[in-house]
Design brief:
heterotrimer; A mainly alpha (537); B mainly alpha (363); C alpha/beta (273); A: 537 residues; mainly alpha; 3 domains; two-stranded antiparallel sheet; 22 helices; elongated; disordered C terminus; B: 363 residues; two-stranded antiparallel ribbon; globular
């Protein structure tokens, strides 16, 4: 609870400071009043302090929340040096303080020079309630939600009326649901068993630990059997919901891991699956994409870097890919094992090049602000970067699919894949198509590298770590099959996350590798094989 | 002459065997009986280094047997090498006895460190030399046989096979990194003291290990040379060049493959077992996919399908590696990578192939 | 391990005991065989009988299912439905390719498939029946009897002069003959020969025709061929395949007057002759 509101309060204070510059007079007057209200706090006993808190509330000053929050967290002091109330940032020996009223930073002050305004539990509860009430009426839904949550944590029958009044007005469904929970929690203390049973039923399926704890106590101790039964049923409902949420979370983690696998493998699907070229340097092309991101971040603010890095990484990796195809691979068509060795050599060269140019150490690629934090996906709280990766994977997949289905190059690629000689006879310049296809696959590897830079260390070994995985995905899905790669990558990701809880991360990976090795024995052509005589050739 | 015809016709092989004999006799003399200040003295460091090269050469020969003759590009042969090495390492660990840091009579130090109470079942028997020696052949052989049996029976071939052999060694690497496996985790097995009662630090033991490596290489080479000279050798080539033809001639291709693959894995295991006492450590890094691929490039450089080429390639590449990684460490990976590209593009049959073509065009 | 090694030479656990039973005069039975690839019916309810000692030609436009049919007989492709018997008793669908080869069915591929780095002699040695036993496999020299057998086949396919040359340097026609020679070394009852004269000169074709005709009688021979002239020179009976089924069967002269055959060959785009 502590850091977030105070941060927000700090922001409010900052806003106020700005406001003070432009519209000094009314705000200044408010400040002085507030200062006057605050001044006696230093010498007051707890009863007087309680009155002063009420007065602070009544003043309805923009800093009220910040001051009260600081008060309950022992950060409100009287500073003799400035002869005013200050709020300290933390409780170290040297503390940076700000003016309690204006929020103006006053610099560091020794702890000895501060006189802390003491508080006790009663005061803290009072302030908590008042803050919550303040919050309930706030225009900001976030603050209202925070306030209702306070009531959920401390259900107090005295505030029932307040909550009911709010309930009639509330339009935000999330807040309304929390209000319902807070009221139900209060109802649990009712003398009427029917009301208690009804409340228990309402509370069923709600996740927060406080609610579950209350229900558990009711289920065990309530004097009335029907209430106990209702609470038990409610708890069962909660358990079910928790389990479902757990599954959903695993699924989500699995999908995000699977998206990474798909991203890493999908370029290979083009070069290996469509062209039949084993590119062991695929991982290093991803590495180039990741390093491109790092370079872009040296020039652009982090928030803007990714939209620039994606096309740039596509270009860099794509051009390197075309160079590899023209310089090496085209001399080795029809000799897959030699291609494998030659491209492996290229991968070593690229690794060492990165080591020599950048550093053998990992590079820190920052995550943009819009990708950090969490977001509610229905009842599920998910981290934004995972969500973005999944979306990115879908976008890349869709674009690639469209490129292969709808463009001239895609048509030519498919023609060359199915019958090289015939395509050439029809006037397709196969050499150009080969180069461009390889460039496309490589470019996608680069784009995948941008995504990887957000998830893992960017270093010379980045590619190696994903190479075996991505080959496994392609082979599992059925070579040359874009949808196969998607299904294979996502299902391997989910399987990995399902195995992890009881096997551990490393063992899960080993198990999957063993599974894949066995799977290839059973179905050497993957999940979605291309059948028929053409596939035999 | 006493030599059988199949060996007589193999001139390059005879040259190589002669060199091995000279090394096997000369190096011990120059190391043990020539005084250290003499210009011809071979240092113990060099003996160990040469011994290491010979082990690598045996690994390369084993890869050539399956790749050069049967067309199976294994990217996981280092796994068999490492398994042989671990079997040997387990024996050497048991030999430490109470001389470990914790002085436990049965448990190696790392197990004491992990608070293990007793030796895991799969460590039993490794205090016996004969058992460990058997396992050096049996463990890689069994893995190769089971893996090959399933893979070849389901007709997994070409790059698919290469990829799953790579996945195999990768999975083993991850597994051996785990402390719970009971093989020393990250650090592997090290701090060996002696073998069969002879101290591993003494020059004479090192020389014996070197001679054994030379003998193993010669033996492995002769076994492979003999095998490819028999009708079986022709079957291998038939499988390499046209698997269907071999099958429609009535050969059980998958069984031939599984057997030869198993034999090759055993050779690799022997190489690993001789390697470990000479370098003094075995750790999961030996399973790294890069190691397997590096071994493949030795074969490619020397010339695959020649059996002599891999020996030449392994020694040349590793000598360059020793030299470059100390003199110009930045350059080593560039050189190795360039070697991969250059050999595949310009020298498809390696150095031996180049020599042969020279001779053919000259005659 | 030793049991496993002995498995190498046993004709395989699936192989039934006893010789081929062709007492009814029929060596190969294909009955109501169908196979499809991704919904495309490569073989559609095909029934075909090859007599003992018969020389049969199979013709048909591209995609008629000729190669797929051979794949089914030799065990490379398993049909979705139908029965395939070798003689009265041997169910070919229960055997795999090596087992089928060992009970006496030899196959020459459309593209000549000889082992190029090996000499002609070594190629024949490889194909020699009996060579598959382990002791044979691990020997480095030939017995006198084996030498004689190989020499006889070399003579028969006209490659005695080429015995020590690598198969890879032989002319195209010589490779075809070498491959037929390899089939002979297998001592098969049935030879499946896919396009034996593709790329041959007329003189070579004539020699091939004589070779195949001389084989009939002691062997059953099934020849898939496009070249009508060649077919005319060897076949007593010809089967026309079209879209995976038998369109017509009979003497070539009869078939050439057959309206459906004319339509398939002249009406379709695939007509090549």
């Amino acid at each position: 609870m502590a850091p977030r509101p105070s941060f927000r309060a700090g922001l409010t204070g900052f806003a106020l400071l700005l406001l003070a510059c432009f519209a000094p007079l009314p705000a200044q007057a408010g400040d002085e009043e507030l200062r006057a209200t605050l001044a006696p706090l230093r010498a007051a006993d707890f009863n007087t302090k309680a009155e002063l808190v009420e007065a602070l509330i009544a003043a309805n000053h923009p800093r009220t929340v910040a001051i009260l929050t600081a008060f309950t967290t022992n950060r409100l002091h009287y500073a003799a040096a400035f002869d005013r109330m200050v709020i300290s940032a933390d409780s170290a020996a040297e503390m940076t303080v700000e003016d309690a009223v204006t929020g103006e930073a006053l610099g560091p002050v020794g702890r000895r020079d501060l006189d802390r305004i003491t508080t006790n539990n009663r005061l803290r509860r009072l302030i908590g309630d008042r803050l919550a009430q303040l919050g309930l009426a706030s225009a900001d839904p976030q603050q209202r939600l925070a306030a209702v949550e306070t009531f959920v944590r401390n259900p107090d029958p005295a505030s029932a009326a307040l909550l009911q009044e709010r309930q009639t007005l509330e339009t935000d469904p999330q807040i309304a649901a929390q209000l319902e929970a807070a009221l139900a929690l209060i109802d649990l203390t009712s003398a009427d068993p029917a009301v208690r049973a009804q409340a228990a039923e309402v509370l069923g399926g709600r996740i927060p630990a406080e609610i579950r704890g209350r229900l558990m106590r009711v289920a065990a101790d309530d004097p009335d059997a029907t209430v106990r039964l209702a609470a038990q049923e409610a708890l069962a409902k909660t358990e079910l919901r928790l389990r479902l949420l757990g599954w959903a979370e695993t699924l989500f983690f699995g999908l995000s891991l699977g998206s990474v696998l798909v991203l890493a493998a999908i370029g290979l699907t083009v070069t290996f699956g469509v062209m039949g070229v084993i590119n062991m340097a695929h991982g290093e092309l991803m590495m180039l994409g990741a390093y491109t991101t790092w370079v872009v971040q040296q020039w652009l603010p982090v928030n803007w870097s990714l939209p620039v890095a994606v096309p740039l990484a596509f270009l860099v990796a794509g051009l390197v890919g075309i160079a590899i195809e023209r310089g090496v691979i085209r001399f080795l068509y029809g000799r897959p094992l030699e291609t494998l060795l030659a491209t492996f050599g290229i991968s070593l060269i690229l690794q060492q090049a990165v080591r020599s140019i950048f550093s053998p150490l990992n590079r820190a690629v920052a995550a943009p602000e819009w990708m950090s934090g969490t977001v509610m996906l229905g009842p599920l709280e998910v981290t934004l970067n995972r969500l973005v990766i999944i979306g990115f994977c879908i976008a890349v997949f869709t674009l690639l699919w469209l490129a292969l289905q709808r463009t001239r190059l895609g048509l030519e690629v498919r023609a060359v894949t199915q019958n090289r000689a015939m395509a050439r006879a029809m006037g397709v310049r196969t050499a150009r198509v080969d180069a461009l296809t390889f460039g496309l696959g490589s470019g996608i590897a680069g784009v995948a590298g941008v995504a990887l830079s957000q998830l893992t260390n960017v270093g010379p070994n980045l590619g190696q770590n994903y190479l075996v995985d991505s080959f496994m995905v392609v082979v599992f899905g059925g070579v040359g099959n874009l949808w196969g790669t998607l299904v294979a990558g996502l299902s391997l990701g989910v399987a990995n996350k399902l195995l992890e809880p009881w096997a551990g991360a490393v063992l899960a990976k080993i198990l999957l590798l063993v599974f894949l090795i066995l799977f290839i024995q059973r179905r050497p052509r993957g999940l979605f094989p291309q059948r028929g005589r053409a596939a035999e050739a | 002459m006493l030599l059988p015809r199949w060996l007589l016709s193999d001139r390059a092989g005879l040259v190589m065997l002669a060199v091995l004999v000279i090394l096997g006799v000369g190096v011990p003399i120059l190391n043990l009986w020539v005084p250290p200040d003499h210009p011809l003295h071979v240092t113990s460091y060099t003996v160990a280094l040469l011994g290491k090269y010979l082990c690598y050469a045996l690994l390369a020969v084993s890869i050539d047997l399956v790749w050069g003759y049967m067309g199976i590009l294994s990217l996981g042969h280092a796994a068999f090498f490492a398994l042989g090495g671990y079997c040997c390492g387990m024996y050497l660990m048991r030999q430490i006895g109470t001389r470990g840091v914790y002085g436990h009579p049965d448990l190696p130090d790392f197990m004491v460190f992990l608070n293990w109470e007793a030796l895991p079942w799969y460590w039993f028997g490794f205090d016996q030399f004969w058992f460990a020696a058997l396992m050096v052949l049996a463990v890689p052989g069994l893995l190769a046989f089971v893996f090959g049996w399933f893979a070849f029976r389901s007709r997994v071939s070409g790059v698919y096979l290469s990829i799953i052999t790579q996945a195999l060694t990768y999975a083993l690497m991850l597994a051996f990194f785990r402390n719970e496996m009971g093989f020393g985790g990250n650090n592997g097995l090290t701090d060996f003291k002696d073998v069969l009662g002879f101290s591993l630090q003494s020059d004479s033991t090192r020389v014996v290990l070197f001679v054994l490596s030379a003998l193993a290489l010669a033996g492995g080479y002769l076994a492979c040379r003999w095998l490819v000279s028999t009708r079986m050798g022709r079957v291998l080539v038939a499988i390499r060049d046209s698997e269907d033809r071999a099958r429609f001639l009535g050969y059980r291709v998958e069984r031939v493959k599984a057997l030869v693959f198993t034999f090759s894995a055993m050779l690799a295991g022997v190489a690993g077992a001789l390697y470990v006492p000479q370098v003094g450590i075995i750790n999961p890094g030996e399973f790294a996919p890069l190691n397997s691929i590096e071994a493949v490039i030795w074969v490619a450089v020397g010339g695959r399908g020649t059996l002599v080429g891999p020996v030449v390639g392994a020694v040349l590449v590793n000598y360059s590696k020793t030299w470059l990684t100390t003199a110009l460490p930045e350059v080593w990976l560039f050189a190795l990578g360039g070697l991969f590209v250059a050999v595949t593009l310009l020298l498809p049959y390696g150095l031996i192939g180049l020599l042969r073509r020279r001779r053919e065009s000259a005659s | 391990m030793s049991e496993l090694i002995s498995e190498l030479d046993a004709a395989g656990m699936h192989a039934p005991a006893g010789p081929v039973d062709a007492t009814h005069g029929i060596l190969l039975y294909l009955e109501e065989v169908s196979v499809s690839f991704d919904g495309f019916k490569a073989i559609d309810n095909l029934s075909l009988y090859i007599g003992d000692g018969e020389l049969r030609c199979i013709i048909g436009p591209n995609g008629a299912g000729k190669t797929t049919m051979m794949d089914i007989i030799t065990g490379k492709t398993k049909p979705d439905t139908g029965r395939v018997f070798f003689g009265q008793t041997i169910d070919l669908l229960k055997l795999d390719e090596p087992a089928i080869a060992r009970i006496g069915i030899g196959r020459k591929f459309q593209k000549p498939t000889v082992i190029e780095p090996l000499t002609a002699l070594e190629n024949l040695e490889l194909a020699m029946s009996g060579a598959r036993r382990l002791r044979g496999l691990l020997s480095t020299r030939l017995t006198g009897e084996e030498r004689d057998r190989i020499a006889a086949v070399l003579e028969r396919v006209g490659l005695s002069e080429q015995a020590q040359r690598p198969a890879g340097v032989l002319a195209h026609g010589q490779k075809q003959w070498l491959e037929i020679g390899m089939l002979l070394m297998q001592e098969p009852r049935l030879l499946l020969v896919d396009e034996p004269v593709a790329g041959m000169t007329p003189a070579e074709m004539e020699r091939t025709a004589e070779l195949l005709k001389s084989l009939a009688g002691s062997h059953s021979v099934v020849v898939v061929e496009h070249d009508m002239g060649f077919v005319r020179s060897i076949a007593d009976r010809v089967t026309v395949l079209h879209q995976g089924r038998v369109l017509a069967e009979g003497r070539l002269e009869e078939l050439q007057a057959h309206p459906k055959v004319i339509e398939v060959y002249l009406g379709g785009e695939d007509a090549r002759h």
